Amino acid sequence: MPFHAFIRNRLDELRSEDRYRVLPDTGKRNGKYITVEGQPLLNLSSNDYLGLGDDSVLRAAFTAAFLEHGYLMTSSSSRLLTGNHYLYEQLERELAHLYDREAALVFNSGYHANTGILPALTCRHDLILSDKLNHASIIDGSRISEAAYRRYRHNDPEHLEELLEDAVGKYRQVFIVTESVFSMDGDLADLPKLAALKKKYGAVLIVDEAHGAGVFGERGLGLSESAGTVGEIDIIVGTFGKAFASTGAYAVMNELIRDYLVNTMRPFIFTTALPPAVLAWSLLTLHRQAAMQVDRSRLLHLASIFRSALVDKGFDVPGESHIVPVITGTNQRALGIAATLREAGVLGMAVRPPTVPENRARIRFSLRASLEWADIEHIPDLISGVLS
């Protein structure tokens, strides 16, 4: 089949499977609401979990700093050339201080971090053991690396230990990789058990806190903080693009690993650095979120009430976090519920394969601390007719 004909045929297949995607026409954000194709909708599909992106006081502080210091909108170079602005060093010192770790390193995105760290640290004599539901960026980083790669059953430390036991004496180093809060099911990794297995078998433990940072922990450091395992995890990856309402990502670690990544991690070496303006905003949001304990508690309490209300209606709602997925099974049902929500002024996006497993399509509600129960209490009744 000719190349372009193949592409057209595959797109037609995606349409027939209700898996075809288009870029939405999103406009202005205004607090709890976002304009999509001219319609203001209650935004339940944002990763701005603490509402920092809408914080007018924070924006005013940033604007004043921007004007005072003249922060540039581009770095025009990689960090190893002329892009290593002094704000990078401030941000990394602050991250290391918050986590009480030796060092931190800032990246352009969480995807950059996860597709660069594993290939840099591993070789063909190593083994990566990854939770089956880890994010695509972790999967891609594992595949890019030369290491052997196996997945353990989701949130199953017993299966992980079987694989660790089988690996004894066969590899130079074993790496355990997991998310802390799983992005699609909203459930939590058992970090104390993983830390214990890491210690027992001499493995390296890497935890992605993309959806945990800002939401869990006294200072918003993630599930690793609330679980008391920060010091037992070799590398903690986090993102500025979700609860911290900015752009970029980071990892905290010891000085030795940081130095090695600076010298060997290809997405770090060969990427234009983040603009100073972005670094300045990240510093502001990082400082602000560290004191938002009340907001974190309110968010998790709201999610618990919402999940219980959905379960009471008979819905399949996994997880135990601020990410509240309603499993629909078929893609068609997910799209139908999303359309019903939109007609009622609510943005709840349908998530379909390959983002989630086959026959596990869903509406993924991402709650924020700025929401009130009155904003969402009608939703279980609203969607119950679609799935009945």
TrEMBL record:
SUPFAM superfamilies: PLP-dependent transferases
GO biological process, one term: biotin biosynthetic process
Pfam families: Aminotran_1_2
Domain Aminotransferase class I/classII large: residue ranges: 41-379
Names of the cofactor(s): pyridoxal 5'-phosphate
Keyword Transferase: yes
Key words of the record: Pyridoxal phosphate, Transferase
Sample GO molecular function, one term: pyridoxal phosphate binding
Name of this protein: 8-amino-7-oxononanoate synthase
Organism: Chlorobium limicola
